[in-house]
Amino acid sequence: MSSDNTRRDNSIGSSLRRVVNVTGTVIHTNFGRSILSLEAIRSVDRVCSNYVSLEYDVESGQRGHRDRITEELIKKLVGCEAATVVNNNAAAVLLCLNTLSRGREVIASRGELIEIGGSFRLPEVMQNSGAILREVGTTNRTYMDDYRKAINENTAMLLKVHTSNYRIEGSTWSADIEELAALGREFGLLVMEDLGSGALIDLNQFGLPKEPMAKDSISAGVDIVTFSGDKLLGGPQAGVIAGRRDLIDRIRSNPLMRCVRVGKMTIAALDATLRLYINGMERSIPPLACLARPIHEIDAIAEEVSVKLRKILDGLATVSVENGASQVGSGSLPVESIGSRYVVLRPTTVSVDRLAALFRVASDVPVIGHIHEGRLVMDMRTVQHEDATYILKAAEAISGRLIGSIGR
């Protein structure tokens, strides 16, 4: 009986499958966002295979705190007094608002009332936190005077939100973070900034516009900063809260903290990722390495894949290499792109929708590109040699299917 049950259990495959991402989006939310570095993977493996000092102080023999593992690293990178980590940035924002402004007003620009993904709407998060939203300004223009006029005896906080997944262009104006911090000090109010995308370094070195960095916000006098661990930071899903020690202590004491705290695997991966920044090895972090990948390297793998695909899909599709552009993704640099190379397939015997579906299901590892103007487009920026092998295996399986159906 138990033998039969074992066989049945072993026959059930995981629905969490490896995929080849050739969509043109580097940090893809649907595909798990950032790929972890080898150092982070090894760190997770180590803590999963052993008992570890997660909440134990070895020197004193007393109970410790899991925040101690990453706090010193965050303090060095951001320049803050203290830091804590929760399970994502939405939780970080909710926890900060609930702890620091429950029952009181939080002033925010109307142009920064973001929606990220399918369910994170800042006004709704604020409502559920118990804070009271006080909108100021207009969609495209919010001045310092708008914040000043809205301040009253029930104001607890001034909130600035980085609009990381959209850009308002044209006739616009937004508050400068230094001025907003100064206004907070003038009236004795807390100033919080939600940066979202989690850039820890200047992205100019990758040929991208500079994203706001937490250390700049802290230097400007912001009291609390929140950002993601799994976007531009390149680590696991997490939300980092950095700022004044007294505020972080209050946040840690909130009963909700236990509901959103992270486990040993997240801490291990984040710790290893942060150490790469500390040691000046950020280019070994996969999403950053991918963004910085030289075009000649992408061109070489595009040519290699296209030559082999022409042979495999001969008579079934035409194959070409074209100039293209990759997107960062996951709400980071929404209107910016990086030059890349596409392998473009134009099917001759089936529809492009059918060809795209076959690449998703014909082999064990789905290959997921995007359809544009009747063509299946594969961006090679994210493709390494192992990924190229899976693309070719999928094409061979597709060729067998299509030629077999034509023969019948």
Labels describing this entry:
408 residues; alpha/beta; Aspartate Aminotransferase, domain 1; Aspartate Aminotransferase, domain 2; 2 domains; seven-stranded mixed β-sheet; 15 helices; 17 strands; globular
Describe this protein's structure.
With 408 residues, the chain is an alpha/beta fold. The chain has two domains: 17-29 and 289-407, Aspartate Aminotransferase, domain 1 (Alpha-Beta Complex); 35-282, Aspartate Aminotransferase, domain 2 (3-Layer(aba) Sandwich). 40% of the residues lie in helices and 22% in strands. The protein has helices at 2-10, 38-49, 68-78, 89-101, 122-129, 144-150, 177-187, 214-220, 245-253, 257-260, 264-278, 286-291, 295-312, 352-361, 385-407, and strands spanning 20-21, 56-57, 62-63, 82-86, 105-109, 115-116, 120-121, 132-136, 155-161, 190-196, 224-228, 239-243, 317-329, 332-347, 367-368, 370-372, 375-379. Strands 4-12-11-10-9-5-8 form a seven-stranded mixed sheet, sandwiched between helices. It has a four-stranded antiparallel sheet with strand order 13-14-17-16. Strands 1-15 form a two-stranded parallel sheet. Helix 4 packs across helix 5 (122-129) and helix 13 (295-312) packs parallel to helix 15 (385-407). The protein starts with a helix and ends with a helix.
Short description:
With 408 residues, the chain is of the alpha/beta class. It has helices spanning 2-10, 38-49, 68-78, 89-101, 122-129, 144-150, 177-187, 214-220, 245-253, 257-260, 264-278, 286-291, 295-312, 352-361, 385-407, and strands at 20-21, 56-57, 62-63, 82-86, 105-109, 115-116, 120-121, 132-136, 155-161, 190-196, 224-228, 239-243, 317-329, 332-347, 367-368, 370-372, 375-379.
